[in-house]
Amino acid sequence: MRNRMTRMAAAIIACTGTLFFGSLLQSAVAQDTANLPYMNPKLSPEQRAADLVRRMTLAEKATQMQNNSAALVDETIVLTFLLQKIPEPPASRSSSPSAGP
Questions:
Q1: Which domain does 46 fall in, by range?
Q2: Is 43 exposed, middle or buried (CB count within 10 Å of its CB: 0-12, 13-18, 19+)?
């Protein structure tokens, strides 16, 4: 019974230590992001963009290229506009001289 309690206490301490270490590591990483060049407003937009794109993975870049936004114009409006009958040009005048006054 005593051996079981010792193992249980050791497991609780190990889990607590792991959680504590994980929270310390996460806060250290979160503080480091404040010093990243793409977050620095003193740099030019070109420098910030170049830094950010360099840090992005290929999957993140591909996601940025997708356009999942809703259409701004209804497709039926576009089709109606494109399929409208184009007016015929006015009839051309005959080449014969018109009778003048």
A1: 2-64
A2: middle
